[in-house]
């Protein structure tokens, strides 16, 4: 780990989502990435590693993202947790905000949105140095319909 | 999707050989331009704006033009202008068939009329289908019993079809004449949606087909049908279901999704009502979508 480098915890039960997000954050934002595949693991890893930022899926086995968020916030009221869901409903948004989420993003992640979140949160918490997010690179090429 | 369905019809009726249809589709790909490309070429939008609209399509089940107009990147008149060149994609197919000496325009018109008659389209729904209205196509072609649940199933399948075309295979199409699904299933990725509406959803296909689907969805090579490939198929299903719950939420129905999973050798047996099975031709194989209002055993 490079000194001063920010650590971001990705918590999602989908290996594909974790891989895509890890690739994007490591290449695009120069942060160290650690992973958890369910909410219970995320809480344990958070307590151990105290990452600068958490991306937390909502629907997961063992412990869902909202419950994990509540436990992390109880452990560390300053925790910066961004909730992520493929179902961006008003209900999910309200529950995430009520539980203390710092932000909410709908999956799949848009790379410019990721950079915006990482830059904002990594520079405002813990008085740390800004991350090294470069200029725009395309996250994915989609087809027209 | 209409031209892909028509292509299936031409194969089934032995009017074309698979190799000939492949050549026709290749020629159509070279002829047909995406709306985004047309918008850049016309000077209506920048590449960054087109990319932004593409990304928005991953989060909301809406057409390119609707999003571009809402964001103020295109005027409705500009959008009409662009879409005029994309409408009636079957005519591009007809042109390709004629250019390749495979069919006359008169014969192509006969084929269209045969297709309309075979699937019992009325004039309005056939015209809508030809213009690319997936909902009209699904309403006519999917085998879903009449009843209050039909609307939900048809809506889900139309959403699924659009998702396949947008994010997996632009030639994906319903396969209404596909053979019925044999149990036990080789592989199935499944997810349950619950709340005021319960919906069991699953995708099934051969290992090879699901690997190709996983690669196409992940947009990267995956060497074997491993955990990453299964995760990609599950995420494809999860995204469709996420969009479905957003659509339902917009109508006041708040639904929840369970985590998706994948299993081999499933023998689903549904209580009451049965399982609606719909086949799509995608990534060169048959993908079956299973839907049930009950969670099967």
Characterize the largest beta sheet of chain A: strand count, sense, and whether it forms a barrel: 5 strands, parallel
**Strand order in the sheet with the most strands of chain A:** 2-1-3-4-5
Rg of chain B, nearest Å: 20 Å
Q: Structural class, judged by helices and strands of chain A? A: alpha/beta
Compute the number of structural domains of chain B.
Answer: 2
Task: Describe the fold and architecture.
Helix content of chain A is 41%, strand content 17%. In chain A, α1 (15-29) crosses α5. Chain A has helices at 15-29, 39-49, 65-75, 90-98, 111-124, and strands at 7-11, 32-36, 53-57, 81-85, 103-106. The radius of gyration of chain A is 14 Å and the shape is globular. The termini of chain A are far apart. In chain A, strands 2-1-3-4-5 form a 5-stranded parallel β-sheet, with helices on both faces. Chain B is an alpha+beta fold and 297 residues long. Chain B is built from 13 helices and 7 strands. Chain B starts with a helix and ends in a 5-residue tail after the last strand. In chain B, 43% of the residues are buried. The interface between A and B is large, with 30 and 41 residues.
Supply the key terms.
heterodimer; A: 145 residues; alpha/beta; five-stranded parallel sheet; 5 strands; disordered C terminus; B: 297 residues; alpha+beta; Chemotaxis protein chec; 2 domains; seven-stranded antiparallel sheet; 52% helix; globular
Brief summary of the model shown:
The complex is a heterodimer of chains A (145) and B (297). Chain A is an alpha/beta fold and 145 residues long.
Describe the SSE topology:
The complex is a heterodimer of chains A (145) and B (297).
Chain A: E1 7-11, H1 15-29, E2 32-36, H2 39-49, E3 53-57, H3 65-75, E4 81-85, H4 90-98, E5 103-106, H5 111-124
Parallel strand pairs in A: 1-2, 1-3, 3-4, 4-5
Helix pairs in contact in A: 1-5, 2-3
Chain B: H1 2-12, H2 18-31, H3 35-41, H4 47-57, H5 64-70, H6 76-84, H7 89-99, H8 105-118, H9 123-130, H10 134-141, H11 150-167, E1 173-174, E2 187-194, E3 199-205, H12 207-218, H13 227-249, E4 256-257, E5 261-264, E6 276-282, E7 285-292
Antiparallel strand pairs in B: 1-6, 2-3, 2-4, 2-5, 3-7, 6-7
């Amino acid at each position: 780990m490079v000194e001063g480098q920010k650590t971001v915890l990705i918590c999602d039960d989908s290996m594909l989502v974790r891989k895509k997000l890890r690739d994007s954050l490591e290449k695009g934002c120069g942060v160290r990435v650690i992973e958890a595949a369910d909410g219970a693991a995320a809480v344990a890893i958070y307590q151990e590693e105290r990452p600068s930022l958490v991306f937390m899926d909502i629907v997961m086995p063992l412990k869902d993202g909202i419950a994990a968020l509540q436990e992390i916030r109880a452990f560390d009221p300053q925790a910066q947790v961004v909730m992520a869901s493929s179902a961006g409903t008003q209900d999910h948004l309200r529950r995430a905000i009520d539980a203390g989420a710092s932000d909410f993003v709908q999956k799949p992640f848009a790379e410019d949105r990721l950079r915006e979140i990482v830059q904002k949160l990594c520079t405002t918490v813990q008085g740390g140095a800004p991350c090294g997010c470069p200029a725009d690179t395309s996250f994915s090429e989609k087809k027209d319909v | 999707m209409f031209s892909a369905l028509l292509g299936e019809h031409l194969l089934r009726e032995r009017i074309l050989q698979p190799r000939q249809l492949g050549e026709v589709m290749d020629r159509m790909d070279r002829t047909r331009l995406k709306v985004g490309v047309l918008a850049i070429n016309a000077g209506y939008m920048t590449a960054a704006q087109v990319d932004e609209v593409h990304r928005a399509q991953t989060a909301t089940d809406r057409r390119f033009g609707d999003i571009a107009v809402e964001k103020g990147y295109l005027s409705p008149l500009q959008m009409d202008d662009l879409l005029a060149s994309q409408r009636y994609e079957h005519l591009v197919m007809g042109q390709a068939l004629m250019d390749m000496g495979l069919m006359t325009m008169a014969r192509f018109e006969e084929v269209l009329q045969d297709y309309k008659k075979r699937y019992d389209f009325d004039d309005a729904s056939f015209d809508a289908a030809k213009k690319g209205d997936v909902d009209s196509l699904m309403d006519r072609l999917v085998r879903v019993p009449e009843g209050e649940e039909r609307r939900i199933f048809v809506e889900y399948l139309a959403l699924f079809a659009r998702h396949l075309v947008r994010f997996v295979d632009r030639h994906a199409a319903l396969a209404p004449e596909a053979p019925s699904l044999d149990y036990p299933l080789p592989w199935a990725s499944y997810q349950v949606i619950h709340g005021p509406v319960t919906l069991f959803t699953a995708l099934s296909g051969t290992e090879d087909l699901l690997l190709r689907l996983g690669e196409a969805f992940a947009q990267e090579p995956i060497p074997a049908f491993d955990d990453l490939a299964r995760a990609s198929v599950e995420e494809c299903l999860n995204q469709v279901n996420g969009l479905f719950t957003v659509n339902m939420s917009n109508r006041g129905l708040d639904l929840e999704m369970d985590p998706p999973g994948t299993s081999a050798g499933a023998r689903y047996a549904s209580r009451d009502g049965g399982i609606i099975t719909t086949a799509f031709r995608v990534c060169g194989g048959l993908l079956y979508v299973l839907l049930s209002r009950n969670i099967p055993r």
